[in-house]
Amino acid sequence: xxxxxxxxxxxxxxxxxxxxxxxxxxxxxxxxxxxxxxxxxxxxxxxxxxxxxxxxxxxxxxxxxxxxxxxxxxxxxxxxxxxxxxxxxxxxxxxxxxxxxxxxxxxxxxxxxxxxxxxxxxxxxxxxxxxxxxxxxxxxxxxxxxxxxxxxxxxxxxxxxxxxxxxxxxxxxxxxxxxxxxxxxxxxxxxxxxxxxxxxxxxxxxxxxxxxxxxxxxxxxxxxxxxxxxxxxxxxxxxxxxxxxxxxxxxxxxxxxxxxxxxxxxxxxxxxxxxxxxxxxxxxxxxxxxxxxxxxxxxxxxxxxxxxxxxxxxxxxxxxxxxxxxxxxxxxxxxxxxxxxxxxxxxxxxxxxxxxxxxxxxxxxxxxxxxxxxxxxxxxxxxxxxxxxxx
Length: 391
What we know:
This protein is an all-alpha fold. Among the domains are: 161 residues, Serine Threonine Protein Phosphatase 5, Tetratricopeptide repeat, CATH 1.25.40; 37 residues, no CATH class. About 4% of the residues have low confidence.
């Protein structure tokens, strides 16, 4: 007995029993010839069910059960079963049939509308689903769920402005905390405007994102990128500097632009101080390597190697070890160079193959940053990996 047959049996058995009960109630008032026909259909439905033919059994019992106050919950359960099995077309027809019954209560009618909207959403008919969910916003019983479904649709269709508006309604009207997601929606809008070279519009969207969630690292990174692209290097450095207080693990994402911004301002000393301050606040090995390059330029390879070595004693890192070996190769004896080069190549491959980011919600990992986890769809859950294999 397969899984779907077992589910179908558990759902359809009460339907069959209820069908028999309804038919029995009509025995006293229905002509004998009609009763015989109905009983025949009922027995046929049972045979389908017992012979592991749930689809035919469903159709038979649905024909026997008229949609009314007593049977509407059974029809709803069947519709849910169809959708779960991927038979969304059947679920749509069933829910449409329920809605067409004028004698049903408003509550049952609205519940059928909601289920139909979910059916439409399941098959990507987003316009129809959106229309129904918007109608149901006027119904207190369905408002919260409809807002959540609308939010899912707007995210799926990348309608970030509507997503932000819907999340703000959930926060203001329903009391749900949505600030983290709202900030991301405005960041998505800002990115779209940035791609269209609308820097001013993008910065306006970022301001809304910061207002929604001042602690968002993405807003700092994106605002810094926008100022940098616009040539406002001082403002870019200020935006990136917020990362030191928000989440310093993300600082490597901006390190290239930070370096370029200081150099464009002819402020090499300021860049050196920024790196030192970042390390003191707990920045990772990427910042250490950048600092070691400045030390190497000013004081030579030995001083740079010593800077890295002191750090690695406290915080071992494959990435740091790779940089340290590279520095030692130049000064090693000729007989030792091949071994060091082999070791350097092995460490380099290890660094290249390791994931850089991990989702703290579901464990998804990869080598590029995702602001919304591709696996669990959580916002802000993907972060840089720390420790010996990361920063």
